[in-house]
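Supplementary Text 2. Reproducibility record for the structural model of the 117-residue chain.

All settings were left at their defaults, and a single model was retained for analysis rather than an ensemble. We include the record here because the model underlies the residue-level annotations in Supplementary Table 4.
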Amino acid sequence: MENARKVGVAVDFSTCSRAALQWAVDNVVRKGDHLILVNVHPEGHYKETEMQLWALTGSPLIPLSEIRDAHVMKKYGIKPDPETVDIISLAAAQKEVTYPFHIYEYIQMLKRLSVWL
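Retained model, structure tokens:
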């Protein structure tokens, strides 16, 4: 979509994170937007999972179909809760949003923020 915006929401799968995601979907996201969920791992977390392959750049964008697959998400070192997956599934259906998921290590996120600001 030509006028699609990118709306990023940081998620850690907590109650507050779900509330922020729901608020963003209800109040910010428009039909056709790109909803990007960002999860930041603690420094050094990549050494424990296959995520070490993306230690410098962060993970590739992960589609919703993979977020629903516990086996795939275990490779990324995260366990999304069903409520968060339900929120993005509903947003995808009702607002026709794309919903990639991106994982960064803490230090990567600091570097990204310094570039963005």
